[in-house]
Amino acid sequence: MGHQDEPARPRLAVWKFASCDGCQLTLLNCEDELLELAGAVEIGYFPEATQAVVEGPYDLSLVEGSVTTPGDRDRIHEVRAASRRVVTIGACATAGGIQALRNVADVDELSAAVYAHPEYIATLADSTPISAHVPVDYELRGCPIDRGQLLEVIAAFLHDRRPRISDESVCMECKRRGNVCVTVAHGTPCLGPVTHAGCGAICPSYDRGCYGCFGPAGTVNPQSLSRRLRELELSERDVRRVFATFNAAAPAFAAESARHDEPTSS
Ligand code: SF4
Ligand code: SF4
Prior knowledge:
The chain is α/β, with parallel strands linked by helices. The chain contains 12 helices and 5 strands. Helix 11 runs antiparallel to helix 12 (about 250-260). The longest helix has 12 residues, at about 70-80. Bound molecules: iron/sulfur cluster (2 copies). One iron/sulfur cluster binds next to helix 1 and helix 4. One iron/sulfur cluster (SF4) binds near residues 174, 175, 179, 183 and 190.
């Protein structure tokens, strides 16, 4: 709680749903900025960082993770009701995450294969993004999210403005870094043309193709990229798989993955 003479600081909450905690860790990894941030906001709820809890309502809620259980399906409505602004962080919260691979499988079969007593598992058939359940004020993409973009989002919402984050593709970042294109130079498959910027084109900068961690960019043509991937001798099955990773249920990637549903010899 602040001193009586101090103006009230905006109250921040950080919530976890089905996720690996990597996006919350991105916030904790903002070492240089964390003290300043802690001075600018009152941390009301952030179990990853502190056991102290300040009751809501909260000015800004960051939500990590997807909805995969009946309990979480109810809890997200409580989070929304307690929050003035809700920002979802990461591929899990914005697209269902890698756990959304269950959406095209039989979840009962998966539970039986993994757990000795699947009858104790309360789980939904689908992994869905937070926006499928409640209105969301902003979706920050990435697996994990980028710390620079996270700080921009927090600063923007504390000042009641839209975040200045472009929805351009990784190719734009890649070109700005002066990289030689791994696809053109070496024939390496790369999802950069259809992937949302934010990572700084880290994989192409180390001579690897982009894996699509940030999900679809604003305007994308996955069909065209798939044709190029086939020319690079990826099988139909492999093309299907490159779109079915961290953002498998993001609509543009899910649709493209489904177009390559039938494995054929190549
Ligand atoms: S988006 Fe990736 S890094 Fe973030 S919580 Fe989900 S799996 Fe972890
Ligand atoms: S390496 Fe990938 S991200 Fe970079 S320009 Fe080529 S296709 Fe785009």
